[in-house]
Amino acid sequence: MLPQQHTGKSNSFSRRAFFSSCAASVLALVLPITARASGIVSLIRIGKHGSETRLVINVSKKVKHKIIPLVNPYRLVIDISNAKLDFPLDKIPKNKGLIKKIRFGKKTANNTKIILDLNEPAVVNKTFSLSPQSGFNWRLVVDLEKTSRNEFFKSAKIKDITNAATVTTDKNAPIPKTKPIILKKPAKKKKPVIVLDPGHGGRDPGAVGISGVYEKNITLKAAKELKKKLVQTGRYKVFLTRERDVSVSLRQRVKKARAVKGDLFISLHADSIKKRNVRGLSVYTLSERASDREAAALATRENKADIIAGLDFKGESKEVTSILIDLAQRETMNLSAQFAGFMVNRMVKAVKLLRNTHRFAGFAVLKAPDIPSVLLEMGYLSNRSEEKLLQRPAYRAKLALAAVRSVDDYFFNAQKVV
């Protein structure tokens, strides 16, 4: 049985350091262009003009925009508040001039976030709109010029967190010498932390099979088998949200995962439905709509200190908080979907799958904004054959082995795209 819904990029396990570095790094640099009607972003081009890099955004109508600098790594976020994206993503230019790569934030009905990953520190020299002419619609033009690290940090109205004393008004000023760095022995490579969540437990039995077997017992046995196989590889640290037959609230499960700094969260379930002929495994990730609602709720909470591990939003504007949460959740959802794909590819070789195997829902256990999460629906206890299979240790071991291989694919065998 699926859990009730809550009513209230580098390897993924290095993302926490990335978000921590953003804690004091954002201030909205507002560059308004007045407009009333919505527009459609239909093309993005990059041109190099001497020392400047020019970004040209074709849009159907004049638009408003804001540009927000982000540090570690150097990025600029162009937040176009009254336009939506509508062009082939394979047409996105990359690695030209100061711009290394272009990405996009979460899509909404009338908002587009264009994220510029920079090759080196750069600031906006000027920005302007060109009215329709020569066969073009409106064009938003952003000219970037190279700057120093200090000036980039200054544009974000923060001090260089690696050497606060180096901030200066002279962008050509040399960085003062610092004390010699004492080299330490290389730290042991961190093992990814996997959190396994056996669904239900205690007073909540979950689904009840044809023979009377409880879902809570099946999920706990499956989680322990998967933990054993993951630990045997020597590549992972593994935690369970429950080790025995006890009740754990949905939010408490996510809280436990974040407390151990989980890098991947897998919730295990076995459903039951009226149609007894239905059988097959499926994998769920968080739906876009549920993510949007959660992001809005997170952004409006008074205590924002623990929304994303390592980030403290106290003192930040609502706008900056929303942008950071949006970027974090978009990356987490992308990584969740990527892992779900690896899992489906491995499971199809081992067990029977449900049609449309990768599915989307708003389950509370999938809502950690900084931990890629999936819900593995192992099968249906309402199907006599599948219920028997899920009670067999050999079958659960087969499921666990396929799951281990999908985890390996995610952390070690694939190039992450963030």
Overview of the molecule:
There is one protein chain. By secondary structure, the chain is of the alpha/beta class. The protein folds into two domains: 27-157, Immunoglobulin-like (Sandwich); 189-413, Aminopeptidase (3-Layer(aba) Sandwich). It has eight helices and 15 strands. It has helices at 15-21, 149-155, 215-232, 250-259, 288-300, 318-347, 384-390, 393-413; strands at 39-49, 52-59, 65-70, 75-80, 83-85, 99-104, 112-118, 122-130, 138-146, 193-198, 237-240, 264-271, 281-286, 353-361, 373-380. Strand 1 and strand 2 form a beta hairpin. Helix 3 packs across helix 8, helix 5 (288-300) packs antiparallel against helix 6 (318-347) and helix 6 (318-347) packs across helix 8. The chain is elongated. 38% of the residues are buried.
Tell me, rounded to a whole number, the average pLDDT: 77
CATH class of the largest domain: Alpha Beta
Shape: elongated
- CATH topology annotation of the largest domain: Aminopeptidase
The total count of helices amounts to 8
Give the domain tally.
2
The SS-based structural class is: alpha/beta
In the sheet with the most strands, the strands line up as 11-10-12-15-13-14
Low-confidence stretches: 4-10, 18-37, 159-183, 298-307
* Proportion in helices: 25-40%
Any idea what the CATH superfamily of the largest domain is called?
Answer: Zn-dependent exopeptidases
How many strand elements? 15
* Proper CATH architecture of the largest domain: 3-Layer(aba) Sandwich
Give the distance, in angstroms, between the N- and C-terminal Cα atoms: 32 Å
| Overall radius of gyration | 24 Å
| SSE topology string | HEEEEEEEEEHEHEHEEHHEEHH
